[in-house]
Specification:
Length: 132
């Protein structure tokens, strides 16, 4: 009986020492976090569908022009809640670092996109956050 108990205890101790440790605030898991740049637009009523689509297409071309963009997605609001406050389009631009975002913001391709957007933009909201 004593041998069995010692064997079980030995297995438990080995199991505890071989368990993965939970991530903490300063380990390499922080490096895997992504910086999200959320942009939501509401367009002027005077802008045609084709003009709005031109803005969307221009934004969607930025990942091919700015290598610091790690990921990009977008979509049209379809929430049934009616809380979008006139915002119809949402874009999610992902960066690996704040330095990459700092390159993106003044990048000539981004500035050119803003010029395409300006005549059609009624409202914009931008928020950035580190994904957890």
């Amino acid at each position: 009986m004593k041998k069995v108990l010692l064997s079980v205890l030995g297995l438990l101790v080995l199991g505890i020492y071989n368990m993965p440790m939970p991530a903490t605030g300063s380990d390499s898991s922080d490096e895997a976090k992504k910086l999200r740049h959320v942009v939501m637009f509401g367009f002027k009523e005077s802008s045609t569908e084709a003009e709005v689509q031109g803005v969307v297409d221009a934004f969607a071309q930025l990942p091919g022009q700015i290598p610091e963009i790690a990921d990009f997605e977008y979509g049209l609001n379809n929430s049934p809640e009616g809380l979008n406050d006139g915002l119809t389009h949402c874009f999610l631009v992902t960066f690996d670092s704040e330095a990459d975002r700092a390159i993106y913001l003044p990048h000539p391709a981004h500035k050119a996109f803003v010029e395409v957007l300006k005549p059609h933009m009624e409202k914009v909201v931008v928020i950035d956050y580190w994904a957890k």
